[in-house]
Design goal:
With 115 residues, the protein is mainly alpha-helical. The protein is built from three helices and two strands. Helix content is 35%, strand content 7%. Strands 1-2 form a two-stranded antiparallel ribbon. The structure holds flavin-adenine dinucleotide.
Length: 115
């Protein structure tokens, strides 16, 4: 459940038993998520493309474009925030294009999507 109201301190509650409604459990567990800025001791979960990050990213991308035999994809490979539906859709599209390249005896591309 998402909570966008300003008077509620958390942004969502996840109760995992609802992912498997066909199961029954005596107990449940749920998590509340609170938004906060990433501190020094936190794991930076979200890619944020600030100006310096973008300069560094471009260097990684040009190295990657000149590499062969490796394809970069997904959230880490493209350093983008991606929801799961987008990630899965891009992975399926990438697979089709990569399989075609392999069958056509072409070398595989570093990137199959433009960002
Ligand atoms: C806190 C949080 C909440 C989210 N909530 C939602 C949501 O509600 N709905 C939604 O649709 N999406 C959500 N997302 C986004 C979703 O999780 C991502 O879109 C999805 O997981 C991206 O899949 P991926 O395979 O590209 O990357 P990842 O799932 O990040 O997979 C990358 C994998 O590579 C592995 N790896 C890293 N470095 C190396 C290495 N050097 N060698 C080998 N393996 C390596 C990692 O361990 C990881 O398993 C959320 C993400 C976060 C962080």
């Amino acid at each position: 459940m998402n909570y966008g109201e300003s008077n509620i301190p958390y942004t969502r509650i996840s109760e995992h038993k609802h992912f498997t409604p066909w199961e029954s459990h005596e107990k449940s567990i749920y998590f509340k998520e609170f938004s906060s800025l990433c501190g020094d001791n936190d794991i930076p979960y979200y890619p944020i493309r600030l100006v310096n990050d973008k300069i560094l990213l471009e260097k990684y991308f040009s190295l990657a474009r000149n590499d062969s035999g490796i394809t970069f994809a997904g959230r880490l490979g493209s350093y983008r925030y991606m929801d799961m539906d987008v990630t899965i859709n891009e992975a399926l599209e990438l697979s089709e294009k990569m399989i075609k390249d392999i069958n056509d005896k072409n070398s595989i591309k570093s990137f199959y999507h433009e960002f």
